[in-house]
Amino acid sequence: MGTKVAIIASNGSMFDAYKVFNIATASAATNAEVAVFFTFEGLNLIHKQAHRQLPLPAGAEPVAAGFKRTNVPSIPELVEMAQELGVVFIACQMTMDVMNLTKESFVDGIEVGGAVTFLDFAMDADITLSF
User: What is the pTM of this model?
Assistant: First the structure.
């Protein structure tokens, strides 16, 4: 059994997305087993529409230009890469209920579960991160 990486994504800006998906894809590319639990604003990172237009912090426009200039993959591309590498996406059922969202609101291939679903995975994780 390889390394297990458990990530909680609870924030929803573009920078948060790059942190989450960069770590998730890098970990999965090294054959780690990776799961990301998306909750509260973090659900925007996998929302069909929202993940295509995530907010940037004020004054961060030069960074966005730098992403384009250096050919850093877009968030939708990173979402797809993560899924292709086997990263498990778990959307928080409680947050979805509170926000009146359904599984169809999100990119294909996600799981919906509660904290217990994520904790079952994270219980013996080698690395646990929160963004």
Answer: 0.94
CB 10 within 8 A of CB 41: yes
Buried b (16+ CB within 10 A) or exposed e, 54-88: beeeeeeeeeeeebeeeeeeebeebbebbbebebb
- Burial of residue 13 (CB within 10 Å: 0-12, 13-18, 19+) is middle
Are the CB atoms for 10 and 130 separated by under 8 Å?
Answer: yes
* Angstrom distance (rounded) from CA 26 to CA 59: 28
**CA 45 to chain CA mean position, Å:** 6
Q: Choose among 119, 29, 30, 9: nearest CA to 75.
A: 9
pLDDT digits (tens, 9 = 90+) for 41-95: 999 999 999 999 998 888 888 888 888 899 999 999 999 999 999 999 999 999 9
What proportion of the chain, given as a percentage, has pLDDT over 70? Answer: 99
Domains defined along the chain, listed by start: 4-130 (3.40.1260.10)
User: What is the DSSP code (8-state) at residue 90?
Assistant: E
One-letter amino acid for residue 2 of the chain:
G
